[in-house]
């Protein structure tokens, strides 16, 4: 059975970009007769906004989303991540790293997503220093993500990313490990999310392989941008969506995803019924898309 999910982070409130992702993820799951899970990715307490998790849940309910089962919280799943890291360390696929960001910047070149880690600690921390973080040792060679919307995406992890972090030096779990462990444990078969995360997908496939887990299918929806061409996000001060105007904002999200409800389809119930009957991934543009002025 198809099992999808939506996994917001409570580092801020939902905005138009996160709404369109939720809508696409939800409709793809329902159109395929599947389940849709909700998971709160609350693994970075210093960046979290107090009350944001509860506000996200209230907003999704007000917009008419219905998820299956209980909401999962990453902050309650540390044992799963620890067990996965111990497996990777025991098999020699993960290793402790003592390098600071300053040291890495001084000796590494820029890659697709920050500095390419040069493998300094692969054979042990130099000079008897203690490891601060844990990294996955990546293999050379190209990985191909067969994305249902974006097509084939290719990346050579060793060349473009380097050995990446699984457990951060500050003691917090890295997204790349936690998301794989969660999706595998929850039985997620298909992931529909924003195209800004496509660059991290090969890293996640490497974690699936290292843990001997089957990988899900992927579909990366178009990213929404503001007038300056910046991705809508908390960092670019994207305004939060309002539950007092839910029907209009749902219609706007559907239109951005290539689905234009007919005139007279105005209420939340009418919009969801129409969307469920008419949803097709073939209508969704690959993007990116600029959010129209309201």
UniProtKB/TrEMBL annotation:
Its cofactor is Zn(2+). Its EC number is 6.1.1.-. Zn(2+) binds at residues 97, 99, 117, 121. It comes from the Bacteria. One of its GO terms (molecular function) is ligase activity. The keyword Transcription regulation does not apply. Belongs to the class-I aminoacyl-tRNA synthetase family. GluQ subfamily. This is Glutamyl-Q tRNA(Asp) synthetase. A motif ('HIGH' region) lies at residues 8-18. InterPro entries: Glu-Q_tRNA(Asp)_Synthase, Glu/Gln-tRNA-synth, Glu/Gln-tRNA-synth_Ib_cat-dom, GluQ/Sye, Rossmann-like_a/b/a_fold. It is an enzyme of class 6 (ligase). The lineage of its organism: Bacteria, Pseudomonadati, Pseudomonadota, Betaproteobacteria, Neisseriales. HAMAP family: Glu_Q_tRNA_synth. A motif ('KMSKS' region) lies at residues 231-235. Binds 1 zinc ion per subunit. The keyword Cell wall biogenesis/degradation does not apply. ATP binds at residue 234. Keywords: Aminoacyl-tRNA synthetase, ATP-binding, Ligase, Metal-binding, Nucleotide-binding, Protein biosynthesis, Zinc. Residues 3-240 form the Glutamyl/glutaminyl-tRNA synthetase class Ib catalytic domain. Catalyzes the tRNA-independent activation of glutamate in presence of ATP and the subsequent transfer of glutamate onto a tRNA(Asp). Glutamate is transferred on the 2-amino-5-(4,5-dihydroxy-2-cyclopenten-1-yl) moiety of the queuosine in the wobble position of the QUC anticodon. L-glutamate binds at residues 5-9, 41, 175, 193. It comes from Chromobacterium indicum.
